[in-house]
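Archive transcription. Copying these from loose printouts into the bound notebook so they stop getting lost. Printout 1 of 2:
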Amino acid sequence: MVQHTKFYELMGVEPTATPEELKKAYRRRALQLHPDKRGNSPEAQDEFTTMKNAYDVLSDPRQREIYDATGEDGLKMVNGFGEMSMEEMMAAAIGALSSMGGGAKFCLLFSITAVCAVLLLVPILWCLRVDQTVDWSWVDVFIPMWILDSIYLCATCCSVVSKDSPVDENGEPVGAPPPPSTYSRVLSKRYTIVTIATVVLTLSMASLLLLKALLFVATQILIAMKLQGSINISCLAVLSPYLALEGMLLLQKAIAAYSIYASVAATATNDKPYT
């Protein structure tokens, strides 16, 4: 049962409403609350904006799931991660936690405890094996790491699969700028470079995320096999997946830095007054 119903009440629908019902409700509410029909008062504009924000959340399956589970505080914490201050993050986390049911709180606490226990097991088992307190194989010693890696890979796969473009009430993608004309692409070399860099960054965030996770896990597998003596390769070869991962991260940062520099330079050139 959905505990947070404020957005549903703003839209005038039930928590079990389908996407089609949400679209119809949005069109109806937009006609009712449009500021032009209500004197363009600040109150009318705020009410319309609040309703539009509720629809934007409920029309996105991922945002809707987060809202149903944690409410508005959970949305703020997820969407504002990295941009909010520590105090704001703590306030949002406490608000989201307090709005969760007893069962959800227990599951969250149990999950955090289990993850912490597995993390503590990793150095403990390594120390026991190095001190020869136990004679387990290194593959067995790495079992806690394999568990964490499995969770990491599953979360990465889910993150890659769920990266969908936002859509409007008509199901059309929104937020994407119109493609430049062929003429402008040919004439503007700087714009082409910036566009390519932006596309590479966007694709790398989605398509290379899983590759990075696989390289990280492959490094651990090779280390375990090297310690066990199952493979006879140099340490440099063992760390080659990790070195490739670091190279990818460095290349991404270089492309991002150049993209920002080119964008700033283009903006400064456009804003420069003609003499």
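Printout 2 of 2:
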Amino acid sequence: MFITGAVYIRRHYRKAMSGSVIQEKVAKLLSRQSGKPVLRPIKPLALKNEVASRKLKKGEATCVTEMSLLMACWKQNDFNNTVCSKEVSVFYTCVEKAQNKAKAKQGTQGRLLPKEANTLLKRFPNQSSEI
């Protein structure tokens, strides 16, 4: 099906206008021109005294090539560790380097684990009364 240029422009113009219309309505609801703002918070705007304990995202898999070389060696030598000792040591050194790199990165990131943040928030809670 062939769409003419005018029909194409009208369709995309409507899509573009609908986004700006929504933004204008939200701005109108939030503005103080008509007295009090229409949108009022149900709860007081304050942080909670606890953080949700979520699991951290796991990073990329490291040492995959070393692991595949180790498994190939094991397969060729009937899972004999003595024959594949070189590959085992290379894999363990790679894992150790990756763990050290992850620890160094975590220390410099400046992010707290949820458990650490919760202990700090228990020690220094938010003031519950409004000022």
